[in-house]
Structure formats: structure tokens, C-alpha cells
């Protein structure tokens, strides 16, 4: 490795460290500002809470031995809802790629469903599934699945058409094109969709959505 290459790699490493340092400083500043605004009563701490109140609540939950029960339940619900929403979303997006006319029919409906406030479905889900863990998981799936379908499908249809035509010239069938070209070339989109999907699942699980609509998750297993 030449001196120039070493210097270049060193500059890249330094740049990444500076970004991480800047992110940490920004986070500390925002937390500090949040606490100051709450102390000065510029914002209503009853609605927005404050870092001090959050720490006190964590300590209280830890002392009552409920903290890890909350964490374990949330992690469990997140894994289940995230996995199901991604598998179902990937499956539906794949069907839409294979059946383009179906995708054209359903496209406006997906757009409408994506714009709907999913929280409004809470009472309906409560009637369907009852006040149990299934309701929270279903809410999280509904919050994340539409955006998962749309993003993955967009990744599929944005693959270079010339590459698809090239595979056609080699007598490749649609399944071979999908498995050997479409999916591998959409991996970046799929991975970015995974990030969005898990964050949307958390939105469906955490207050004020999943927990506050249905029940206190601390007792969801009883």
C-alpha cells in the first residue's frame, strides 16, 4: 500500500470519526435543550416529558423489576411484527412484479392505504382481536407493511431493462430472471426497506400507538 493510499484511508477514517463525534454532540445538545425548556416551563413536561423524568421512570421500573419485562415484551413484539411484515411485503411485491397488470390495478389503492392514518384502525383491531398481544402485533404490521410493499416493488421495477432483455436472449424464464437478476440487484433497496420497516414497526408498538390504544404491555402475557 502506497503512502497516498494510507493517507486517503486515514482521512476517510478521520471523516467518519468526526461525523460520529458531531452526532454525539448534537444528541447531547438536544437532550440538554429539552431539559432546559422543560425546567423553564416553555414546553409542557406533562406532554413532552423530560430527560430527568425519563431517567427517574427507568430507575423506578428497574427497582420494581418491571423494566426488563417491558424491554423483553417490546423486543419480542418488534421481532414478530417486523419479520411478518417483511415476509408478507416481499411476497406481495414479488407477485406484483410477476403480474404487472395486477400491480397497475392495485397501485392507487396502495397509495391510498399508505396515506391513511393507521392509528385510526386501533378500535377496529381491538374489536377483531381483543385486548391482547395479537392486537399490538397486527397494528405494527399494518403500520409498516404498505411502505414495505411499495419500496420493494419500486426496487424490482427499477432494475435495468437492458439486463432483463439480455437474460431473455439467453432463454431465461421469468423465475430465473427474478431470482438471478431482480432480487440481487434490488438488495440495496431491500436493505434500506428493512431499516424503514423496523422503525415503522416500533412506531406501531410504542406509545401512543400500540400500547396506549390497547393495554399496558407489562401485563400483556397474563
Notes on the structure:
- The protein is mainly α and 222 residues long.
- The protein folds into two domains: 1-64; 65-219, MetI-like (MetI-like fold).
- It is built from eleven helices and no strands.
- It has helices at 3-39, 45-48, 51-63, 67-98, 100-115, 122-129, 133-157, 161-169, 174-185, 187-205, 210-214.
- Helix 4 (67-98) runs parallel beside helix 7, helix 4 crosses helix 10 (187-205) and helix 7 (133-157) packs antiparallel against helix 10 (187-205).
- The model is unreliable at 208-222 (pLDDT under 50).
Number of strand segments:
0
Morphology: flat
- Secondary structure tally, helices: 11
What's the pLDDT, averaged over the residues?
Answer: 84
CATH architecture of the largest domain: Orthogonal Bundle
Strand content: under 5%
Structural class computed from helices and strand pairing? mainly alpha
CATH class of the largest domain: Mainly Alpha
SSE string: HHHHHHHHHHH
The CATH fourth-level homologous superfamily of the largest domain: MetI-like
Which properties best describe this structure?
222 residues; MetI-like fold; 11 helices; 2 domains; mainly alpha; disordered C terminus
Amino acid at each position: 500500500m502506497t503512502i497516498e493510499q494510507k493517507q486517503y484511508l486515514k482521512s476517510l477514517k478521520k471523516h467518519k470519526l468526526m461525523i460520529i463525534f458531531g452526532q454525539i454532540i448534537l444528541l447531547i445538545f438536544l437532550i440538554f435543550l429539552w431539559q432546559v425548556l422543560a425546567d423553564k416551563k416553555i414546553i409542557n413536561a406533562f406532554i413532552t416529558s423530560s430527560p430527568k423524568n425519563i431517567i427517574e421512570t427507568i430507575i423506578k421500573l428497574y427497582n420494581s423489576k418491571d423494566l426488563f419485562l417491558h424491554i423483553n415484551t417490546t423486543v419480542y413484539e418488534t421481532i414478530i411484527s417486523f419479520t411478518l411484515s417483511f415476509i408478507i411485503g416481499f411476497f406481495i411485491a414479488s407477485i406484483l412484479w410477476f403480474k404487472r397488470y395486477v400491480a397497475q390495478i392495485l397501485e392507487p389503492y396502495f397509495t391510498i392505504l399508505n396515506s391513511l392514518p393507521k392509528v385510526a384502525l386501533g378500535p377496529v383491531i381491538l374489536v377483531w382481536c381483543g385486548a391482547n398481544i395479537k392486537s399490538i402485533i397486527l397494528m405494527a404490521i399494518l403500520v409498516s407493511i404498505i411502505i414495505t410493499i411499495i419500496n420493494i416493488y419500486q426496487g424490482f421495477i427499477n432494475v435495468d431493462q437492458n439486463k432483463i432483455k439480455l437474460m431473455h436472449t439467453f432463454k431465461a424464464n421469468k423465475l430465473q430472471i427474478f431470482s438471478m437478476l431482480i432480487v440481487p440487484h434490488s438488495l440495496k433497496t431491500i436493505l434500506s426497506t428493512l431499516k424503514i420497516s423496523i422503525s415503522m414497526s416500533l412506531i406501531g408498538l410504542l406509545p401512543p400507538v400500540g400500547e396506549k390504544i390497547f393495554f399496558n404491555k407489562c401485563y400483556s402475557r397474563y
